[in-house]
Design goal:
Blueprint lengths: L1 E9 L2 E7 L15 H11 L15 E9 L6 H7 L8 E9 L4 E5 L2 E3 L1 H8 L3 E4 L10 H11 L3 H48 L5 H13 L1 H17 L4 H18 L4 H27 L4 H21 L3 H64 L9 E13 L2 E10 L7 E2 H4 L2 H14 L8 E4 L2 H6 L1
Parallel strand pairs: 7-11
Antiparallel strand pairs: 1-2, 1-3, 3-4, 4-5, 5-6, 8-9, 9-10
Helix pairs in contact: 2-5, 5-11, 6-10, 7-9, 8-9, 10-11, 11-13
Amino acid sequence: MIVELWIRNFAVLRDCRLRLEPGLTVISGETGAGKSIVVDALEMLVGGRASSGAVRSGEARAVLEGVVDVKGVAGVRAALDELGLEADDDHLVLRREIRSGGRSRAWVNGSPATAGVLRRIGSLLVDIHGQHEHQRLMSADFQQHVLDAFGECTELAASVAAHFRRAAELEARLAALSDRRRGLEVRADFIRFRLGEIRNAKLRAGEDDELRVETSRLANADLLLRETMALQALLHDDEDAVADRLSDAAARLRRLAEIDPALEARAAALDDAYHTVADAAAELRSYGDAIDHDPTRLERLHERQALLQALMRKYGPTLAAVIETGKTLARELDELETAELDASELRKEVAHAQESWAKAANELSRRRREAADRLAGAAEAAFPGLGLEGGRFRVGFEPLPEPAARGRERIRFLASMNPGFPPAPLARIASGGELSRVMLTLKSILAGIDELPILVKWETEETIKK
């Protein structure tokens, strides 16, 4: 149903906003009150031909907007998907602007559209009973809707469209992933090279500080050995060594402590100082004995330092930053390599969705063909009562080259109004009056079945007079 219709600067209407409720709405008034303008606006909103005369005098443009409740309306969602338009579950917002020069623009749910798109969607929503109502019979979407409604397979048709949407969505994701992977492969090779440099270095946290200390020790080995030997002699080995003098001082103070016990603590402190100096001298001796004079080792250390410095210049200001960069690159490479697994799973999903579409589409084709024979029989049985004696009616099936939301085929209504002529598309063989009678035939057959949510009847009094 139409929830709201907003007409601005159209014909003689400046600003008309109609909010409608479910059920029957009657717009009445004297001749010239503008009843037909509302119908004209609705007709133009659903794809009718635009003209400069539609714009109110003195205005630059006319604007028509409509909000339609499409919940449960068969075919609308499939048509929107096939046209690449966003679909809301419950409402459809149509908008059309007509310029004073006659050009127009249209939108469906905020997305730009053409008048042809409006006509296609409108044929699934609105049935305007007027002078040109039979023109809807030319619409392939309307013909498909009639056949599906007659064959009670609108739900199956909606399922086919849903499977098609799912397959198309998955195919788009797979294509995007494939495009992305081509760029990712280059990125992955680059990451492998950088990660290889870091991993091959076998870095350890704090290694740069350790190298700095060891390199300094080896580079100054002669100085360290010379000074530690001199200190060892000063503290312990010389005749007048510090340790000997402390030992003598401690002995003298212990003797004094025998006289005055108050000196015992000082004597003990001197003993401690002696042992500390003696221990230091022993440690210096061990340190000197361990000093490495290996120039080959020093060269290897310099090479290792140069490698670390090169990596730090390239991957981070510090060794810790280089190690963290390696972890980051490893995670990114793992994600890139996982993309191939994602693509494999996505290909399986695509195949499953395509198989589901094919199964549903095959069943829909079978049921449509069964319904086509019954619809043709019902139409031909009704033709004589409408003055179409000898008229023939057929439903044609035009195979589609690729899967589509509508199924495997496009529906075409064919007819022959003259005996001896084969059925052909309606537009080529029928006059306006004959088309009106064919439309009336189909409406009588579909009474109680047709699900078009909006029915507009106008100029009723003239029809009654006739």
